[in-house]
Amino acid sequence: MSVLQTASIGLQKRFGRQRLRKILLGTIPFVVLLAMWQMNTAMEWLPPVYIPPMASIWEAIYTLSEGCAGAGAVLSMQYECLFTNHILSSLGRVGLSLVIGIPSGITLGVLAGMSRRFAHALEPIGVFANAISGIAWVPLAIVWFGTGWLTTLFILLNTVFWLIFFNTLLGVRGVPRVYENSVMTMGGGRWAIISQVYIPGALPSIVTGVRMSMGFGWRALIAAEMIGGDSGLGFMIFVSAAEYKIEEVFLGVLVIAIMWMITDRLLLIPLERWTIQRWGMVWRPD
User: How far from 117 is each of 28, 38, 120, 122, 124, CA to CA, in Å?
Assistant: First the structure.
């Protein structure tokens, strides 16, 4: 048996044939794009001002991190560690918006799903807020809060909160009333209905809302950082574009995409697997 066959059998045993096939199929588009990128560098189909070579991306990382003393300097966000400072700033803003937006959106969404009067009071505000794109709030946010954390946090919360709220509201309304009546028949109180019926029943919608809010939140964050931020990946892209540093623009875009893919694959998909699919709340193909 050849080395390739042995390695293939070992990988199939470890990951499973279906999962391995899925991983390989998912990597094909990226391999093709990287190959075309490298071919463009060699053949010079487009000049570097449009598509910089891969080597310049690595050089941009070194340039933005030049003078950074190490992990301690990165964690303390010293000025010399520009690259990691931008990443940590964006991650901090997204994390803070999720910490505030997810619990408040779920709480008010459950309450609105339980109470028609409460829903009638909040739904018009939510429809009004959702009708306005997050980027449209940036000029007003700059006037109200200036440039910096408060402006970007306001834009993010405006995006994250309402997506979580409406998805939770629709999920609670979709729970059959017979489940609520069953819990009440067995002597369960209002808290038992919320924790044992509404939240588990609405969980598919809630998880969908979380994934949507993180995706749209990243977009809103980058736009807000470009116009009203003083740090972050969006700010880095905007400043680099103004200075015609195309390699730094590409670097920022690639980092945003990679961070979102890592978040989705390592956090959101396992969350969906451990909750919704584990409890049999969604259909999953064999």
Answer: 52, 60, 5, 9, 12
CA angle at residue 214 from 102 to 192, to 5 degrees? 30
CB proximity list for 35: less than 8 A, separation 6 or greater: none
- List pLDDT tens digits, range 82-133: 888 888 888 888 888 889 999 999 999 988 888 888 888 888 888 887 777 7
Q: Answer whether 159's CB lies under 8 Å from 216's CB.
A: yes
Contacts of 161 (CB under 8 A, 6+ apart): 100, 101, 104, 105
Angle at 109 between CA 104 and CA 112, to 5 degrees: 125
The DSSP letter of residue 134 is: G
Q: How many residues does the chain have?
A: 286
Q: Alpha helices, DSSP H only, in the chain?
A: 3-15, 17-43, 54-64, 71-75, 82-114, 116-131, 138-145, 149-173, 177-185, 190-193, 199-228, 233-242, 246-263, 269-272
pLDDT tens per residue, range 42-54: 888 888 888 888 8
Radius of gyration of the chain (CA): 23
Give CATH for domain 60-277.
1.10.3720.10
Cα–Cα dist 47/234, whole Å = 24
Q: 168 and 210 in contact (C-beta within 8 Å)?
A: no
Structure token digits, residue 179: 């489940």
Model confidence at 286, pLDDT cuts 50, 70, 90, reads very low
Domain coordinates of the chain in residue numbers? Answer: 3-45, 60-277
